[in-house]
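Revision sheet: structure tokens.
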Amino acid sequence: MQLFLRNNKRVALTEAGKYFATSVDNIFAILEESTNIARQIHNAADSGELKIGYISSVYQPHLAGVLKSLRQQFPYIKTSLYERPTIKQVGSLEQGQLDAGILRMPVNSDKLEIKTLFFDPFMVVMPKSDKGPERKNIADYIRDKPFIFFNKEYAPHYYDKLIEICYRLGFKPDITHEANNVHSIVQLVEAGLGYLYCRCH
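Predicted:
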């Protein structure tokens, strides 16, 4: 069968050639997909898992979305999650103890590849019994309230950012409690022990 039409100026595919070229492209695509799946199965069999670190304050639907996308792309990979602060994740990633991490900027490492997944706004979380300011702006309302922050040693960059925001709003926060887990902090806020200035939804 004739696959090409040739003349002095150009080469063109015949109808049979077009069909054959499409079929070959499909075969190579299937071959590449099969190779990738085989590699995933092999890697999963070798390591047993893909170790992913994450920070406690990550918005859970975001985390679920990342895991779903990962599952769609690598259906044969088993994932294991490890809750760790950003600093410890960076060290674990550099040492090969984690394969990937969901953490907060800034990340000071020239050994890691960084990709932005999403942005979170800062907001004030207050006890449900507190109806909030009626006339005053939020900065004036919360300047004399007790605050609950992440522990400075646990999340120094995050802690410093919260202090910076409060100073920018014109007050120094009265930090009465510190904790290492956002869920623990939220429970303290629910109990009326303080206010939380955080990056969450």
